[in-house]
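Recall that a protein's primary structure is simply its ordered list of amino acids. Everything else, from secondary elements to tertiary packing, is in principle encoded there. The following example makes that idea concrete.
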Amino acid sequence: MEDARTAIANDWQSEEITCIAMNDHYVKDQNCPREFLMNKNNRVLDPTHLTSLPAAVRVGIRAALAYGHQFDTHFETVESAAPGTKFMKKVSIRTVRVAGFRFVVGWQHHMGKDVQYGSRSSGWWKLAEDLVTKKASAVSLPVSWIQEEEASKWQAELNGVFDQTEHLCRKEDLDAAILKALALQKSPVILCDPFLPECPVIGVNAAAQAMTGWGHVGRQEVASADVRLLAGAKPSERGGYHLTYGRYAEGEEEELQRLAVRAACANGRPCSVKFRKMFELPGDRPLSLWLQGVTVAYGVNKGPLGGGAHIWYLVGILSDAPVDAWEKEAPSSVAMASLKQALQEVLEAHDALPKPGDSQEAGEKDWHPYGGDVRLLSKLVWHCQP
């Protein structure tokens, strides 16, 4: 896998894309040094970093990767990655398999608004293919490009994203607002995103960091933090807790809970889940974890999230008390009430999002003035476990 990363770019599963094929105009732009563009930690899909991808395309790519889609696409009028500068560009994105792993390769064709990127048979496509093949061959890795008929399967699904400059960008704002609310909580809480592969932990507040030893966890660290809710992960040498380690035998309560969460995420159904004990390394104390699903918005119009789709998260309370976190006498029961109030205030106070509304699907006229992809509920819907 490291050879593949060296040959091409970052692993697609970490939601990172690096522009590895660039035209001379872009490379020679002094405001966009090669070191910035070629850095494998560039994290083009991370909205907190400067990027040559518009938010709509970035989130569309993330959603496509999350559901295992392969695709080719083009988009135009993209802001430059250089601080304080803007250029008109033509960008292409293609999916390639290298040594069995899938990567997304992006490259820029020309500066200037009047130049067309051309068809698949044009020189730009061949230049990119030759570059990737050369890099992979240098380390003896096989390469196969996603065929046009395979890629076109999902093109129609993604057109709604690429055709709307602002489409889907507000889901990221919603993430940020909820993470901010969690950070203010005194009790140890975590946030998981079921719209990303394996429902990873995308936020841990200071109290949870102190209890678990995870350190800071955010979208940037999801791929390396080893705190995915559903995937099987090996214990880390640096210690700390793992939601994913397979310590439960098939048929045990916690394993059944894990499978229930996996099914719920796959089918888009919010849920609640309880883990009586998380995996602990020698010397660590056992923790109980109380996760509750909460719907905060509905998707609107077209796009990977879908019109009317539930926009929901799993928020969790950690407890090291002898009593399980979800019991009435547990201190965490008070913490959950505080957390629910904090998240409700997000809907009432976060003015960067579309105005609160009812549960009906919003039309284009409702979301377009705000440039958003979600319509907030006026009240949170919590999905409590029976």
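Residues 331-349 form the longest helix (19 residues). The chain has twelve helices and eleven strands.
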